[in-house]
Amino acid sequence: MKHQTSSKIRLSALTAAVTCLLYAPGYSLAQDNSVLTGRAAAAGTGASGETVSAAQPARTVAVSGTSRNRNVIPVEKQRRLNNVSLFAGVAYTTMVNNVTTEQYLANRHLASSSTFPLRLLTSLKKNPWRAAPFMPVQDRDLSCYYGIPPYREPLNFDVRTTPVEITANEVTGSIGNLVSYSGDVIITQGDKTVRADEAVYDRANARVSTSGNLIIQGPELTINSTGSLQSDLTTSVSTFTDASFQFNGSVARGRAESITVDNSSRTSEITSLQFSTCPVDNTSWYFQSDKVKLAQDESFGSAWGNVLYIKDVPVMYLPYLNFPITSKRKSGLLYPSFSISSDNGFDYQQPIYLNIAPNYDFTLTPRLMTKRGVLLSSEFRYMPVEDSWGSFTLDYLPQDNSWELSDNFDNDYRYFLRWDHTSWFMDRDLQLSIDYQKVRNQDYDYINDIGPSGTTVTDDHLKQSLKLSYNRPEFVINTEVRNYQRLLPESLIHYRPFAMLPDLQAEYTDTVGALTYDLSGSLTKFASTSDVENSGRFEAYRYHFEPDFNYQFFNQRGTSLTARAKGFFTHYSQDSLDNMPDYYRHELGFNTLDKEVTRALYMVQLRAKTTLERKVIDLRHTQTLEPEIQYQFIPYTDQNNIALYDTTNRMSDYYSNFSSSHYTGKDRIADINSITFGLSSRLLDAHDREMMRFGVSQTYSFVPTRVTLNPNDPANLYPRSPLSFFFDANPVPGMTTHASATYTNETNELAAWTGMMRYKDENGLLMQVSYRFARDANRSFANETIDLGQLGIVTGLPLSDRFSMTFATYHDLAQDTSIDTKVALKYEDCCWSMAFIYENYNSCDWDSLEEQRDHRVGVQFEFKGVGAISVTGDSSDDFTNTRLLNSFDPTNLNQ
């Protein structure tokens, strides 16, 4: 089960103590006394057993009874090393900030020895420093945490048998008594190193102690202490005093008065623990705990006397905490979220998490909305067996004080229900999925008012689906039962979706030499009901078979010639038109629906394409020219006696001009006798990455298409389709542009067009302008067809090193109304951030069919590496996503 552990309250001050438990025992020296005795004897004990001095001007290293000298690096050599390091640092900085140099070095064809040093630095740049998996240092914050050791994977070794290497400037002692190491003492075992001014081994009492500037370095943790380390090899108890620790590659660090680790009982006790994710020189906040107890075999630890400090000011006190120290889940409070809006008032949510079992959990979220009341939101997640999981969500509002009741209701309770489930069987060849969503019948405003997360809205309808899919390399079988709950009044529905009870589809694909064939078929039962008087339940059956054969005559050196033949065989069994709403007759123009209809059509297609290339600009860039031509033929048959069950118009673009489907769905198959021309071109850089792509296409019909979507729709007698363009470009690093348009030659006007320009740099500057227009593609409250014209502006401005502002707005120019506007001001420190957000968005009342405005004010406060208290429903870290529309880049390069 995928659990959202990131949202739990994880007190880092307490979690940090886990590492002390896991690593401190590894720093206890080996319990094999003979190993240590042998090293001491080799270091300096006479034959008679008396103590002798082993002081040497050079350092002495004792390893398995042998010794070797390490020479001191001369001053001149050290100076040259420092100069080389300085030069390498300057060269590295230049490479990081110079985009041209990076692209030049990425070209593997430049095989010259003169670039080797820079290539080497480039390789080092790819992985010069590794972040820890636990509370890692993010790239944007690396400058705040300069000097933190990199994270390394720890070695798995036995501390009782792995040799211990000890070096020191001076060694004195006796085999039977004490061995004292002094002066730059280094003790190494496996991948762990202890450095101290002095270390003493007491063989008689089996004790090891160190003192003076103690540094313990491991792959995951570094400990510094001005106190001491006392390790009893007999009881396996080690005690650190006055110790500060740093998680390698992580923002997590802390300090403790003492840390006692008992290896035999596998427990640890920490006193006066102070923990923070802030840099050492800028501790903006920290946790203080009087005492912490941990057990290595347990999943949770305990802490007493816990205080959260912000700039040395205590802001929260918890006398006792039981907290997770592993990835296992535990019941408790999750982070709250809140906002202030004109529609809901003060909106506060406090999730309560219950860990029922390892494969079951439950979250209850009381939500207080001062203008509406208290909503209880619950989510039950389950994983009964392997490859099977799901969640059940129920939101219930007993009384909505701000809901203007329509004549359809005599009370004001509201609810939202969702069941989301997935199961895999037969080695993941068979999949079962359930997606069921429902609100109270005729509660059209619930999604706008309450806005539950994870809602899937399809054309103003909630989907209710049960689907079973069997996938094999050669064939696919899908069956689905689907229904919809509408979120609009009947008077605003232009096309009412039909339930599929069920929809069964099968497809088989194979190849024989240059021939590829695809055999697909479907059986669907459609059903629909209406709230309008004089219209009842409507049912229909559709049987469809579609064989498709594709033969490739030629495919060499970028040129291909392909022939295709396809059949459409469909049979309908339909109810009477009397069971349909009146707008089918009055608005759409249906006069009658035949009870039994059989339709048989075919398509033939011939398509050719070639790709031409040439070197341009500096002879390192490549331009392609890709012309293509296609002929298609489908005969005509009258289809106005067939209702529309899953079919509507398609938007025209470059690729749809080459498609044989003028409509989505199978209820309309347009007659075609046409030829389509297309020309596209790409510009590639020296590394074959797309910098620009352009295309234009148009279809010429020898015989005008007679099939229309609705009987009342006028036939298109003009022989040419709209001229379709697209353009994508990446002119400079960080900038992307996209444009597409369809131009109608008959009226000499644009039928639809979109444009976007976006720039984002490494400093956080973001500028994006987008616009989309589609003629007669929107509807007003009066259910009249109007143009769609929307302008969007998204801006992210780094005001200073700490402050940034984000602004996003979308405006409907055709109706002169604001869709959504959002502004956020964020202050970001190394270890915490705070953001203030204001949003003004369109919130329509679908009962009264009136446009309303809603305002939302919120705060997001984040302890980096720990968690955040955020604005209700705001999932964007950079605040570019608004409540109604998300920011995205439609540029389609290198795809």
Could you characterize what this model shows?
With 895 residues, the protein is mostly beta strands. The protein is built from 8 helices and 49 strands. The strands form 3 sheets. The chain has a 30-stranded mixed β-sheet that branches. Strand 7 (192-202) and strand 8 form a beta hairpin. Helix 4 packs across helix 6. The longest helix is centred in the N-terminal third of the chain and has 23 residues, at 75-97. It starts with 11 loop residues before the first helix and ends in a 24-residue tail after the last strand. 25% of the residues are buried. The model is unreliable at 1-73 and 96-100 (pLDDT under 50).
Write the layout of secondary structure elements.
Blueprint: H1 12-15, H2 17-27, H3 33-44, E1 52-53, E2 59-63, E3 66-70, H4 75-97, H5 99-106, H6 116-126, E4 165-168, E5 170-173, E6 178-189, E7 192-202, E8 207-211, E9 214-217, E10 221-225, E11 228-232, E12 237-247, E13 253-262, E14 267-276, E15 285-295, E16 300-310, E17 313-324, E18 332-333, E19 337-341, E20 345-349, E21 352-357, E22 360-369, E23 373-382, E24 388-397, E25 414-425, E26 430-439, H7 446-449, E27 461-471, E28 475-486, E29 499-512, E30 515-528, E31 538-556, E32 559-574, H8 583-586, E33 596-609, E34 612-616, E35 621-634, E36 648-649, E37 663-664, E38 672-684, E39 690-701, E40 723-729, E41 735-744, E42 749-760, E43 766-779, E44 785-798, E45 803-812, E46 817-828, E47 832-842, E48 853-863, E49 867-871
Parallel strand pairs: 19-49
Antiparallel strand pairs: 1-5, 2-3, 2-4, 4-6, 5-6, 6-7, 7-8, 7-9, 8-11, 9-10, 10-12, 11-12, 12-13, 13-14, 14-15, 15-16, 16-17, 18-21, 19-20, 19-48, 20-22, 21-22, 22-23, 23-24, 24-25, 25-26, 26-27, 27-28, 28-29, 29-30, 30-31, 31-32, 32-33, 33-35, 34-35, 35-38, 36-37, 38-39, 39-40, 40-41, ...
Helix pairs in contact: 4-6
